[in-house]
Amino acid sequence: MAIDNAVGPVLRMCEEVDAVVAAIRDDNPDTEIEVIDRGSYVRVQATDKLVVTEATLQEHLGGGFQIRSLEGMLSSFAGRITTSSDRIEWQTGASRKTAVR
């Protein structure tokens, strides 16, 4: 499946990756989401916009999980990223892929 205007995170492979993907799916219920497992990383993408909230991440990863912990799991992303204290959003715009270090 090829997604037009694909946006979303590229997550380093870790124990929490399945729970993060589940949280992203929950926060975007009417969105077709593609998950590509490349072994050492997982690309999660959708068309135009993708969101994940701290509350949903906590449902899947435990109440102590903080949104800033997700940023440490990102190796890259597609689209423009907007972060706040309780959510991360990827959307089309100045489309570029940027490594997070």
Automatic annotation (TrEMBL):
One of its GO terms (molecular function) is monooxygenase activity. InterPro entries: MOase_MmoB_DmpM, mOase_MmoB_DmpM_sf. Keywords: Monooxygenase, Oxidoreductase. The keyword Oxidoreductase applies. Pfam families: MmoB_DmpM. It comes from the Bacteria. The keyword Oxidoreductase applies. Belongs to the TmoD/XamoD family. This is Toluene monooxygenase system protein D. It comes from Amycolatopsis rubida.
